[in-house]
Amino acid sequence: MTSHYDVIVVGLGAMGSATLYQLAKRGASVLGIDRFAPPHAMGSSHGKSRIIRQAYFEDPCYVPLVQRAYECWAQLEAESGTALFQQTGGLMIGDPSSEVITGTLRSAREHTLPHQVLTTAEIRARFPAFSPRPQDIGVFEDRAGILAPERAIAAFLGLARAPKGGRAAALHTNETMRSWRAIDGGVEVATDVGVYRADRLVLTVGAWAKQILAELSLPLTVQRNVLYWFTPLQQAEHFTPAHFPIFLQELESGIAWYGFADTGDGVKLALHQYGQTVDPDAPRTPVSADEVAFMRSLIAQHMPHANGALRDSATCFYTNTPDGHFVVDIHPECPAVVVASPCSGHGFKFASALGEVLADLASGQKPVFEIEPFSLARFAAR
Ligand SMILES: Cc1cc2nc3c(=O)[nH]c(=O)nc-3n(C[C@H](O)[C@H](O)[C@H](O)COP(=O)(O)OP(=O)(O)OC[C@H]3O[C@@H](n4cnc5c(N)ncnc54)[C@H](O)[C@@H]3O)c2cc1C
Predict the structure, then answer these.
(1) What is residue 62's DSSP assignment?
(2) Distance from first CA to last CA of the chain, Å, rounded?
(3) How far is the CA of 207 from the centre of ligand 1 (A)?
(4) Does the Cβ of 315 fall within 6 Å of ligand 1?
(5) How much of the chain exceeds pLDDT 70, in percent?
């Protein structure tokens, strides 16, 4: 007999695990399916840390959503008894006309967010690990910091399986969805293990969205991004969370890099939106000596004391849209299906709030947040 659920969530990374947790809490009968066993290192949600910040240079429309996300992360910490957020402050660096600086100031001013504008000399004095260029200024916000992605996904899934109130979700890991189809006003999902039915389906499949939603011809590209952890060469105290905020610096030629304090694994540094387009199913290419050398050349110029031993590196997928904004919508041909690909390299911080939004959509409710900027229709208009 085919099992029937209120909602099936396929893909239990950041977005899917948050959605499953919300639905279980609301008492829905829900099945979560993932091809791996989350939290895992095969998609977009691994690497020990993610930035959260609220003066959002990408667009002020994200600010209310991230403010709700802060509340939801705190709620998840309380319910799960797990520490997920470490406040370190956040420093955006660039020349005054850069997108990072103008966009951060725009969001800060439109939403009256507390922030401080720092000169080059002030950045150097206050945060001595940084060696900004003479033309750089900084925008500092106190509330930014570090989220723990693997712990967050484990917390969402743990509470979905055993919610405090609501109804326990069924979890099928190491099970791959092969296809889905609309049937009798609902959906039928076929995996390599079985066939399941539900009133609604949420597809939060990350880097696999383009192939799973092939009928929509989504203009998504999957980009391989590299993460590096370095042991500081000297003055290790300058890289501790008390002295080293999360940062993102826009450099010449459109390159931006970002990083995190040393919380025990080394200083984590990475380039933003910088990597080859890849097939998520192809064998993973190891980090090359040339890639490490390029990162070291940036460190030598902009953060010389970080240039010690390379402790670790990893690769991870960005799933990019042409405009850098998310996809959160109802499938245009099947209203029982909710589609979400909130990545473009900046989605994690929102996962706790997007879980609510996706649970609303999967329950037939209008979300309290405006999701029009994330609509599928914007691609058709191109
Ligand atoms: C290197 C890197 C750094 C980043 N830094 C930041 C940051 O600092 N701050 C920030 O906010 N965001 C950041 N992001 C973006 C953020 O991490 C992503 O937006 C977010 O994690 C995406 O979550 P997701 O649930 O869409 O994808 P994933 O977490 O990858 O989940 C997708 C899931 O779908 C499953 N799946 C796929 N196909 C199937 C199938 N057929 N059947 C069953 N299961 C399937 C996969 O196994 C996977 O578990 C970063 C991303 C990367 C890669």
Answers:
(1) G
(2) 44
(3) 7
(4) no
(5) 99
Element (H, E) at 318: strand 310-320
In Å, how far are 186, 200, 274, 329, 337 from 318, measured between CA atoms? 31, 27, 10, 19, 23
pLDDT at 382: 55
Tokens 């990350």 correspond to: 206
Residue 25 is encoded by which pair of tokens?
A: 């809490």
| H or E, element range at 124 | helix 120-126
Tell me if 258 sits within 8 A of 266, measured CB to CB: no
Quick count: other Cβ atoms within 10 Å of Cβ 279? Answer: 11
> What does the alpha-carbon distance between residue 113 and residue 110 come to, in Å, rounded to a whole number?
8
Q: What percent of the chain has pLDDT over 90?
A: 97
pLDDT band, very low/low/confident/very high, at 276 (cuts 50, 70, 90)? very high
Q: Are strands 337-341 and 3-10 parallel, antiparallel or unpaired?
A: unpaired
Query: How far is residue 41's CA from residue 352's CA, in Å, rounded to a whole number?
Result: 20
Q: Report strand pairing: 310-320 vs 145-147.
A: unpaired
305 against 381, higher pLDDT: 305
* Residue 266 near residue 312 (C-beta atoms within 8 A): yes
With a 6 A CB cut-off, is 13 part of the ligand 1 pocket? Answer: yes
Mean pLDDT of the chain: 97
With a 6 Å cutoff on the Cβ, whether 249 touches ligand 1 is no
Determine which residue's CA is closest to atom 49 belonging to ligand 1: 13
Q: State the closest ligand 1 atom to the C-alpha of 212, by its place in the atom list counted from 1.
A: 41
Token representation of residue 216? 């929509």
- What tokens does 206 get? 């990350």
The protein residue with its alpha carbon nearest to ligand 1, atom 51, reads: 345
The DSSP code for 97 is T
Model's pTM, two decimal places?
0.98
How many helices (H) and strands (E) would you count in the chain?
Answer: 9, 19
- 275-300: average pLDDT: 97
Partner residues linked to 40 by β-bridges:
none
Q: How far apart are CA 229 and CA 236, in angstroms?
A: 14
Identify the pLDDT of residue 1. Answer: 59
In tens, the pLDDT along 167-200 reads 999 999 999 999 999 999 999 999 999 999 999 9
Token readout for 109 is 């001013």
